[in-house]
Amino acid sequence: MRKFINIHTHNKQTEGVVSVINLGDNYNRCLDFNPCSIGIHPWFVTDTSFKGQLDELANYAAHETVFAIGECGLDKRCETEWLLQEKAFFEQIKLANRIDKPLLIHCVKAFGEVVQCLQKVNSKVPVIFHGFNRGITVARTLIEKGYYLSFGRSLIRDQHLESLKACPLTQLFLETDDAELEIETVYNKASVVLGMPVEALAVQLHENYARVKKTKFNI
Ligand SMILES: [Zn+2]
């Protein structure tokens, strides 16, 4: 049985699972978390802190334990000024492209704007929309552009299962985010919805992970 991949979690490593631990600050911790994602979340960026956050992020981004830059993106429901959100996002897209690592996207009610930002700077790196919980129209738009969708809590709540079914297996990831949830539970649910064995799903997501990470190494 291939190890499960948890593409986005704020919790600790679980044995037998490849968990991409998200670190939203103190990026030097990336040395202790393998694999991890590091990035500036739109909720936690301020005018005064931004330059320092970005410098620190750039210092650690190329480290081998860092799988992706993120979670970063745009959020229409948060207090952070929109122009600052965009600036922070643009800088992180550019950084990810400089070091050729994937982007892990946090997006709330701003899918069109996120895509515009990515296209504006001609981003070439893999893009993973984490915690995807939208309907099939948004799902299809992102899938057509070659982006990856990562599902978690919404599956357990039986929300937008049609989006999961519409997602090509080669563009799929699963996650727990900050929920009190085992990744195994998410795999089991996805396997039922997709009508495929958990083992086959595990093999597929393992392949996706290796492709995005551009590695052939066993994980
Ligand atoms: Zn998260």
From TrEMBL:
Q: State the InterPro entries in the record.
A: Metal_Hydrolase, TatD-like
Name-wise, this protein is TatD family hydrolase
Instruction: Report TM segments.
Output: none
Q: Which Pfam families is this protein grouped with?
A: TatD_DNase
Molecular function per GO: hydrolase activity
Tell me the superkingdom of the source. Bacteria
Please provide the record's keywords in A-Z order: Hydrolase
